[in-house]
Amino acid sequence: MRTKALHGIELALVDINIDSVNRIKKFAEILNEKWNANIIISSTSNRKEILPGADYIVISIAIDREECWKSDYEIALKYNISHYAENGGPAGFIHSARNISLILPILEDINKLCPNAFLLNFTNPMQRVCTAINKVSSIKFVGMCHQIYFGYFILGMAFAKELGINIKEDPRFVWKDEFMDYHFKISNKAMEYFDIKAAGINHFTWMLDVREKETGRDIYGVLKKKMNDLPPEFEPLTQELFKIFDYIPVAGDCHIAEYLPYTSDLYSETFKKFDIQMYDFKWSCRNRDKMWKDIEMMISGEREVNYLKNARSERAEIIIEHIEKNSNLYESSVNIPNRGCIKNLPDGAIVDVPGLITGNGIIGLAIGDLPKPIAGLCNRQLILNDLTVQAVIDGNIKLVYQLFALDPMINNLDTAVNLADEYIKANIKYLPSFQ
Fold first, then answer.
1. If exposure means fewest CB atoms within 10 Å of the residue's CB, which of 52, 95, 349, 432 is most exposed?
2. How far apart are CA 283 and CA 289, in angstroms?
3. Residue from 52, 55, 51, 43 nearest 12 by CA
4. Percent of residues, the chain, with pLDDT higher than 70
5. Cα angle vertex 310, ends 334, 215, to 5°?
């Protein structure tokens, strides 16, 4: 509604919770009126009512998000596995299984009712959900993620003196509102001056090229030297991986830890050693409650809406606008099937690369080869993605045993079987194919 190029479109809001979607419809109608967007708005709990003729579809879902996430984390702890438990590791499977199970019927309806639509997915685990989309449909799609901003945060911290940034006494990442504001301020500043070309898989991309925007000068060598001057408590896993692999991972310690075994052994307490910040479930719930309160206040007129014109965007509207314009807009991070973008990752696998937004969808930039060790780390995860999707489609517990036996966080075959069984049992109401 703040994007003038999209004024006058038809917007259909869908949620299985009709009360929630109707509240959002009221909110949208206020923005529509205040900003003169002239958008036709509808809401429904039945997607089949609005999918026919749809040009673009945005999917952003979760199932009992904090409750399930916390349970996934705690179940793994019983097997001496301490991990972030969102997108990778054993919990990455069960989180994927829940959301893929919910998305598969949606994809079936899209295939039947609007096969020419363009799908924008914001649902995690991004890698595995997008693998499912690619496997069961022929629709054009992109997975969108904002984690590239953390790479700019690292860049801003490294060049803090040159950018006039004061580094906090305690620079550690923490799930607090004041840190988020600090993080966005620094990443935005770095984005004004620098350009990162990163590639790999979602939440596991690596800086391959870093340049000054104004001059085009390659500053990766300078950045690597500056990494040695960062406070040791700032993203210590990122710093350690850089020292070993000579390339800087983008996504920050919380996320890169999900794809590696180096912090997951509960007995050796490496999770504590690297000070991995577990997601703050209470903070998340408080923020959601605050969001709904803010929305209610804007619906009632107790709060103005214009501050939202500067709200941070997840860029769905940017993608849609520039597909419509055929503008060849550069986008620094898109999750799409590999079509020669990264030569030493499998063709068709979901990769995270820079891309161009065109009238024909999104074209990934050709990156070439990833460094061999990094490609090796990514390839294992891509195999886990494929096994996860097939296991969920077929309801095949033996495939789950296999992917757990392959997962780098699991070093015991009894654990692979027993943990898989416990995850399935604890989530069986969400998993129709396993019933």
1. 52
2. 10
3. 43
4. 100
5. 60
φ and ψ of 334, to 5 deg:
-135, 145
22/43 Cα distance (integer angstroms): 6
Cis amide bond preceding 125, omega within 30? yes
φ/ψ bin of 254: left (φ > 0), alpha (ψ from -120 to 50), beta (otherwise): alpha
Strand 140-143 with 118-121, pairing = parallel
**Which tens digits make up the pLDDT trace of 51-104?**
999 999 999 999 999 999 999 999 999 999 999 999 999 999 999 999 999 999
Distances in Å between the Cα of 209 and the Cα atoms of 97, 216, 220, 230, 367 are 35, 11, 6, 20, 10
pLDDT of residue 420: 98
Reference 128, options 154, 98, 148, 155; nearest CA is 98
C-alpha dist (Å) from residue 341 to 202, 210, 249: 14, 18, 18
3-class secondary-structure state, position 61? coil
